[in-house]
Amino acid sequence: MNFTETAWKVFNQSIEDYHVSDDVNTLINNPFEKDSLERILYAKNWIDTVQWHLEDIIRDENIDPAEALQLKRTIDASNQKRTDLVEFIDSWFLTKFENITPRPDAKINTETPAWAVDRLSILALKVYHMSLEANRESASEEHRANCQAKLDVLLTQKEDLSTSIDQLLTDIEYGNVKMKVYKQMKMYNDDSLNPILYQKGQQK
User: Which end of the chain has less Cβ packing within 10 Å, N or C?
Assistant: First the structure.
């Protein structure tokens, strides 16, 4: 089983586990061994899955404004955890390939392996939920047909993205691509970088 096959399997296990209770407040119960790559991937997708459903909830037109504000804060915190975990996955790959010497003509990819994995995790959620819509008995036949067409596209995208990720990892392993990681430098959560936050602090 190659990397993306393992990742896809873990992502879907996380999604299935979440939907046992289908509750954004459910605590993660990671079934994989400590320090294993599978454990990291499961944690990554669990964050994505919870956030997917938080984004659904906050779009309720009748939501209480105070609840919406609290949900926005929760989503912001989730985004930060997501970014931190993606960067942790890149650190895992950096360690894995630390003894690889890139070729003199090695290329630099537009995104790191972990950010590509992030896209695969979100894609697993899209496939899961589009499949539900394509088979929802309460929906119209037209709706199900439209969703099936979208699902077919998503599954093609899954194959293409998986191939691209596996090729990227192979290229890094053989020195054809130089792995270079940049931190995301998120500014909106930082009291010293977000002007709304640091100006408020100066006014006290």
Answer: C
